[in-house]
Amino acid sequence: MWSLRPGRRPRVAVVSPPFLSHAQPLSVLAGALARAGADVQFASAPLFEPLARSASARFFPLTITRNANTGIARSTRQGGREAERLEEFLGSTRDGAVEALLTQSRHRREDMLSDPAEVLAGIRALHARLSPDWYVVDQLSYPVTLALHCLGLRYATFCPGHPTYVPHSPDTLFGVPYAWPRAIRPSEDRIAQLRRAARANDEAFTDRFAEVIRTHAPSVEAPRRAFALASRHAVLFNYPPFEWLPKHPRSNTRFLYGGHCVPAQEPSPGAEWEGVVSRLRKTHSRLVLVALGTFLSARDDVLATVVRGLLREVPEAAVVVAAGDRAPSLAHLSAPNVYVADAIPQRWLLERADGMVHHGGNNSFTECVASGTPALVLPFSSDQFAIAHDAERAELAICLDPSRLGPREAGAAIRRLLAESPAGLSRWTRRVGLRGPDWMATRLMRTMEGATAGC
């Protein structure tokens, strides 16, 4: 147990996996913790050191998984098996929701707990060198959470995806959406198949956790469910506080719904992007972003379908497309009103856009809510179906099935969004605007300081 000397700033280590979609919001939270009075160390893969600098945090290089995604998944240097799994996953998204989720379930055992002994040694070395008072760990970084659990170190959990990623009941299974959007409704048989695969994963993963604990920390109690292992002090959700979300029964843990992890001011990406937006706006009254995330940008067939539909149904709109390493294959779509790039400054562009088409990833979803941008959601995998359901229920977006999408349907949906903004957007943008990273950081500091005082 630890206690702070009077006048000393608490030392906090924010640990991120080597995925840009996780490291970016965690770095924003790290900056907010620094503003709230903490001495912050950002620990992640070396390529993410610039994020630490932007957050006014010190950087500690730490590798916690063989898998990685530094911005464009296919362009990130991967090991042979990691690259093979990525291609298998992308192929499965063409066959619909359940096939994608089943593929992810098969891959999960390899992804979730690779090299636990190495990660344990890395956290032990980090702690010996930096002596943090407490940690903030990405909820999907299971090896890090397990290491902190084995070492008896105090931490808070940051959930980067849908809140049901932290199971709230025995029936909640990681990898099975708690609810589905209207456009995607698998049969009961297919859902049962998915639940069986997820249950087997849950049991195997829990057994693996127990095995690691027996080997490296035999005096420590193993969790009843590995997927449910999270901080007993504070869990932070990068998500709006929708009233219908399942409630967590643990009364001693503080669950903080922060709304979003968007900085108060997004810096300009430079003259080139300023010029792109200026040119498009001079000739077109509307601007639409199309981005399917760092993995799913590889689905250039869906990107092309959306762009063709938009050009046909909404001629007054210009479009900016994030195409990852598939940008060359979409070059034929380039026109005065179409700008195709490998990556885009999404948060900056959202302040200048009239609408967005995205995959239902948590960052894109919450960034659209924070900026008040209407969206067409095309969910492919992971928690995207649950997020799409919530977006529909909150009247924040339209959702369609990307595996059955045609140009006319896509274009008509975008036309509707631009003609009449979703009914819930202004209300939830105002409500989410009252929260955010500084709101989370302030409350987290109070919670962790209170936990310290109680020791």
Automatic annotation (TrEMBL):
Q: Which GO terms describe its molecular function?
A: glycosyltransferase activity
One Pfam family recorded for the sequence: EryCIII-like_C
Q: Which Gene3D superfamilies match?
A: Glycogen Phosphorylase B
Tell whether Lyase is among the UniProt keywords: no
User: From which residue to which does the signal peptide run?
Assistant: none
Erythromycin biosynthesis protein CIII-like C-terminal domain: which residues?
Answer: 318-421
Swiss-Prot/TrEMBL keywords:
Glycosyltransferase, Transferase
Which PANTHER family does the entry link to? Answer: EG:EG0003.4 PROTEIN-RELATED, FI06409P-RELATED
Tell me the protein's name.
UDP-glucuronosyl/UDP-glucosyltransferase
**Originating organism:** Streptomyces nanshensis
**Lineage of source species:** Bacteria, Bacillati, Actinomycetota, Actinomycetes, Kitasatosporales
